[in-house]
Amino acid sequence: MIIAPSLLAANYGRLAAEARRAGCAGADWLHVDIMDGHFVPNLSFAPELVRALRPLTRLPLDVHLMCSRPEILLEPFAKAGANYISIHVELGEKAGSLLWKTKSLGAKAGLVINPPTAIANVLPFLKQIDLLLIMTVNPGFGGQAFIEESLPKIQQVAAWRRERNLDFRIEVDGGINFTTAAECARAGADTFVSGTTLFGSRNMGAAIRKLRRAVHVRPARP
Ligand code: DX5
Ligand code: ZN
Questions:
Q1: DSSP letter at 82?
Q2: What pLDDT was estimated at residue 148?
Q3: Ligand 1 centre distance from Cα of residue 135 (Å)
Q4: DSSP string of 4-17?
Q5: How does 84-103 read in b/e, with b if 16+ C-beta sit within 10 Å?
Q6: Partners of 132 in the beta sheet?
Q7: How far apart are CA 149 and CA 151, in angstroms?
Q8: For residues 73 and 195, what is the distance between their CA atoms, to the nearest angstrom?
Q9: For strand 131-135 and strand 108-113, is the pairing parallel, antiparallel, or unpaired?
Q10: pLDDT value at residue 40
Q11: Residue 219 has what pLDDT?
Q12: Around 79, how many Cα atoms within 13 Å sit in the side-chain half-sphere?
């Protein structure tokens, strides 16, 4: 199980210390949300932030691009030191070549799906990806409520992964707390992004340990 605190919920006045706090607390990855003010109605970080963080933490950097033109961002983020770079399936046809390009740049390739998008849209890409991120809120903002309708999507993807003998990670992002994380784990998720619950806690180490206990459940196999 991978726990990835989302920097979107960190204190922006002290990002370096916040990244170290996540590392010391026992996080596995650091999730970095990139928003362009167009694909989603909010703005966040640039490749320069990833470049600045890279020497400060040993945690793999999990970059989530909520951007309309990821083609201009893949190389800057890969060169800045991103380990995983994920693009949205809602971009349509160009998703396949973006995934391929991500891998050619030496990063792991992730595909993200929004709550209203039918899960069948990811099928053509399953063999190409290292990670499938199932959004459990509509992207753009932290602190939203988990959308329960995401759970059958996780189950479906876990079944496809098993049937096809694939080994991409199944990540969830949005409204992940101790309860919703356990529900997602039961549905088959193995990678948990959490912003408000982890960065908002006084003792992130204790919060991560509690989250790990919550997701330590056997997935229900249909
Ligand atoms: C939402 C982002 C999330 C966000 C999650 O658009 O993709 O990564 O930080 O925040 P919480 O855990 O607060 O819902
Ligand atoms: Zn995210």
A1: -
A2: 98
A3: 9
A4: EEBGGGS-GGGHHH
A5: bbbbbbbbeeebeebbebbe
A6: 111, 170
A7: 5
A8: 23
A9: parallel
A10: 98
A11: 79
A12: 8
Determine whether the shortest distance from the Cβ of 124 to ligand 1 is under 6 A. Answer: no
Cα–Cα distances (Å) from 69 to 12, 17, 74, 88, 119, in that order, read 25, 31, 9, 10, 22
Residues 172 and 158: their CA atoms lie apart, in Å, by 12
Element at 30 (helix H, strand E): strand 30-35
Q: What is the number of other CB atoms lying within 10 angstroms of the CB of residue 169?
A: 18
Q: Is the pLDDT of residue 173 over 70?
A: yes
CB distance 170 to ligand 1 below 6 Å: no
CB neighbourhood size of 192 (10 A): 29
> pLDDT value at position 101?
98
- Asked if residue 139 has its Cβ within 6 Å of ligand 1, the reply is yes
pLDDT at 222 over 80: no
Question: Nearest to residue 67, comparing CAs of 35, 110, 41, 89?
Answer: 35
- Counting other chains too, the contacts that 121-125 makes at CB distance below 8 Å and 24 or more residues apart are 121/89, 122/89, 122/157, 123/160, 124/96, 125/89, 125/95, 125/96, 125/99
- Residue type at 219 in one-letter notation: P
Mutate to test the pocket of ligand 1, among 7, 196, 201 (most ligand atoms within 8 A of CB): 196
Q: For the chain, state the CA radius of gyration.
A: 16
Rounded average pLDDT over 137-158: 98
